[in-house]
Amino acid sequence: MQILNRFLNFVSDVLGAIAMLFLAFLMFGTTFDVVVRAITGSPITGVFEFTELALVMVVFLGAGWAHRGDAHIRVTILTDKLSSATRARVVALAWGIGALGVLILAIPATNEAIYSVSIREYRWGYVKIPIWWTKASLATGLWFAFIQMAVQSVQLFLFGEPAPNAAKTGTNRRQDL
Amino acid sequence: MDPTLAPYIAVALIYFLMALGAPVFAALALAGAAGIIMVEDFSFLMTRLKSISYATTAVYTLTIIPLFILMGSFAHHAQVGKKLFDVASRWVGHLPGGLAMAAILTSAGFAATSGSSVATAATVGSVAIPEMKKAGYEGSLSAGAVAAGGVLGVLIPPSVLLIFYAALTETSAGKMLVAGFLPGLLTAIVFMVGIYFIARRGSMRHAVTLRASWGEAVRETGKAWQVLVLFLVVMGGIYLGLVTPTEAGAVGAFVALIMLLMHRASWSGMMGRIVESFQSTINTTVMIMFTMIGAAVFSYFLTLIQVPNHLAEAVVGSGLPPYFIIAMLLLVFVPLGMFLDAFSMMVITIPIMFPTVQSLGFNPIWFGILAVKMCEIGLITPPVGLNCYVIAGIDRETPLPEIFRGALWFVLLEVITIMILFAFPVITTVLPDWMNS
Amino acid sequence: ATSLKFDSYVSDSAGPSWIDRWYLDELEKRTAGEVSIRRYWSGSLNKVGEHLGAVRDGTSEMTLIAPGYYQSELPVTRGLEWYFRMNRADALQKVCRDVYEQFDPLRAEWEERHRSKVLYWTNWNYAPLILRTPINSLEDIKGKRIRAYGVSADVVEALGGTAVAMAAPEVYQSLERGILDGVYGFDFVTAIAYKLHEIAPQFYDIGDGPHAPAATIMNKQVYDGLPDEVRKVSDEIVAEIYGGQFSAIYEEVLASYVKTAEAEGVTLSAISDEQKAMTKALVQPAQVNSWLEGTAKPAGIDGEEMQSLIDAAIQKYDPEATLKRPYEISQES
Ligand code: NA
Ligand code: NA
């Protein structure tokens, strides 16, 4: 149990760290492009084409952190009124639904990724930028998010809600907000 | 399966799944999926969903979302946003609901740099909500104010949505942009007046700052030089032609990072602050984009069975008197706005509506601004209201239904604004007409 | 009765949409209720980049495909993309049709790989070089920042300009703010519809010939499953499109957009024949060779054979073609 959770946290940290690099690229790369263009008159080849791929990486590799940080919006106003034991069951169901929602995206995205890799797909634009690796990462991120939500659902169902703070370890919650 | 029942079942499913506490993106995706299966079949669904996650996220203009959130987060740690908000509250903070008014003013200022409603709501929200909380403001109203303030993002130029309308209808893009300015200001004023009246009753009544003298207000404005720098970098960069709005987001985030690095009080634990900014930006971005994917699935379903087309066609063919037709066309956006995003609504309905608007002899720019405003209301109405989701992501203590409840006041104020714009077209047309001469 | 979905990534007023709408209307009319078609414009059903997959996999039945968006999926078709090789858009349409019939790998790319039948070839008529400020000669292009991608970027770079990739929604505001000096590769009709001329009113005919080809396609299984009657009607309509309807529709559209453009302050000009020849030498045969080397060879396509078929078809159709360029239309009136 502990080991499983620790493993999931480890994976989400690895994927999240990569997502962070891509977010840093969005900021630094674009700024650098603007500066170079202002000085030399020409942009850096490929920054534009790469930008939207970076967004894909941020979103799908960052999905693990988002789940751990409880970032997905849920309506809890009704479930909050339930008794603790019943609530655990209902919230388990809610995350089961979340897992199902990700699953119906993950399966077809995997087919798309296999096709994309098989044709070594690249993006339209001024330069040829391969995109197959982003589609593969996208599918990976979705499968990981599915596993996280499914595991959370099963754990809630079997063991009930953890102590208030335990569920919120890991990533940020802006305490000062 | 009777296909005419499918949309009702799918909509009911959204509410049911949300009530169970399922993540919003999953409720939307599954309800949309159920709808698609009802009118087509499961294998059709699986085929359609192959590329939807990629096509919804690999969009250059959406990169503005994490960049502006990141800028907001750095600025927050460097206490830049707080200063901007301080300035605004120095001017209006002593009034009932003054801090909420300050949030609206800040939104209007930020809207002049950003072309996106969501980015405006996210940035201003992360600055203003903590301050309003501290002052004991009611969660629903303060969250609602910031969510609603976000809609100024696409009215006050720059604005991708105004350009988009111009391209769809082949009206002048330059005039559309200019036309958004006064209605944007009017919206801000109506919001502030509305807040004044709403706040006279509730917990927002308290004056949190003492009335500042004009001199002090001006001096305080001078102290917030960082705000001025950020404002100049972002807005100046756009207006001087150095950067596109998306690039401005990146440069703004970079400058805010420099400010954070130079902010002496933040030196201890700096690395933690930077990582935290990145993490919270990633989390909010994931939440927004997942929700957009869920909404894309649902919106595909509604588009597939041509719900928006049928609504628009029904009004166009109704044979009502001209002004009544325009009013009905605008009302079509209310039910659509509950589920669809502004771009989808425009793409589907404007080509159907526009020939009628033209043949009845109405000013296309005037109608465009009204349509954009109607589309924007969708951002703050349940069940799919992206601005409210963003605020819920920032303010974890106020439940989503509370935020929608708070935003409802602003829907009302939006309706008042739209009625004013409807009755006095000159507010919209004066600037573009003036451009002509 | 047959219900079909036509799903286009562009708006119903974009260049090729005028041809597509005529085909769809005629198909409905001439089959007298047997065929009905739901139309989705501006990427309202599927998003840009998803349309080929949608028709291949059968979630949509018909669509318009611009090969530039599917570079790795349509390597053979991209051999039809060039500038500075011929003069007339109506000839380009027939060139594409002939090569599709004669060159098996091109047909196989559509009918086997993407399980789609090309109903008819179409194209974006003409794409002027659009600039904010007038130029005296092509020398003045040097250092200018011009929005372009794919083969149009090759032309901009060959002329010494800087090709800038940019998302379409940002183009207008970037011209306005001076981030861009111009745009190349936007067809004339779309440029006017997007009101780019409000900021960049200098339109130059640089002798580049017709702008990129596109194909209107139908899922092959759906096509094969249509009643014989319907397929016969479709064939008739397609024959009329190739037989002069394409030119007739575009002539009218171009004439009306030239009128709008001139009324709204556009200056249509052309560079000298000498300069056209100079530009042509900069772009061709380098552009075709880069397709031969960079795309055809790695994909195992006999590019030389395809290009010689193209040359023959150009010889055959270009001299007799009639569809005038916007500049020529403006000279007549
Ligand atoms: Na704006
Ligand atoms: Na809504």
Your description of this structure?
The complex is a heterotrimer of chains A (177), B (437) and C (333). With 177 residues, chain A is mostly helical. Chain A has one domain (2-165). Chain A has five helices and two strands, in the order H-H-H-H-E-E-H. Chain A has helices at 2-40, 47-61, 63-68, 84-118, 132-159; strands at 122-123, 129-130. In chain A, a hairpin with a 5-residue loop joins strand 1 (122-123) and strand 2. Chain B has helices spanning 6-19, 24-39, 42-48, 52-57, 64-77, 80-92, 98-111, 117-134, 139-149, 152-155, 160-169, 173-179, 181-199, 214-223, 225-239, 245-262, 270-304, 307-316, 322-339, 342-359, 364-377, 386-394, 400-423, 426-436. Helix content of chain B is 77%, strand content 0%. Chain B is mainly alpha-helical and 437 residues long. Chain B contains 24 helices and no strands. Helix content of chain C is 48%, strand content 15%. In chain C, helix 1 runs antiparallel to helix 9 (228-263), helix 3 packs antiparallel against helix 9 and helix 3 (89-102) crosses helix 12 (303-317). The longest helix of chain C has 36 residues, at 228-263. Chain C is globular. The mean pLDDT of chain C is 94. Classes of the chains: A mainly alpha (177), B mainly alpha (437), C alpha/beta (333). The structure holds sodium ion (2 copies).
Approximate strand percentage of chain B: under 5%
Percent of residues in helices of chain C comes to 40-55%
How far is it from the N-terminal to the C-terminal residue of chain B, by CA?
Answer: 59 Å
**Tally of DSSP β-strands of chain B:** 0
Structural class of chain C: alpha/beta
> What small molecules accompany the polymer chains?
sodium ion
- Give the radius of gyration of chain C: 19 Å
Indicate the proportion of strand residues of chain C: 15-25%
Return the average pLDDT of chain C rounded to an integer. 94
The coarse overall form of chain C would be globular
- Biggest contact: A-B, 67 and 74 residues
Shape of chain B: globular
Distance between the termini of chain C: 47 Å
Spans of chain B of at least 5 consecutive residues whose pLDDT stays below 50 are none
Supply the number of helical segments of chain C.
Answer: 13
What order do the strands of the largest sheet of chain C run in, or round the barrel if closed? 7-6-8-5-9-11
The low-pLDDT segments of chain C are none
Structural category of chain B: mainly alpha
Organism (chain A): Sulfitobacter brevis
GO molecular function, one term (chain A): transmembrane transporter activity
Keywords (chain A): Cell inner membrane, Cell membrane, Membrane, Transmembrane, Transmembrane helix, Transport
Protein name (chain A): TRAP transporter small permease protein
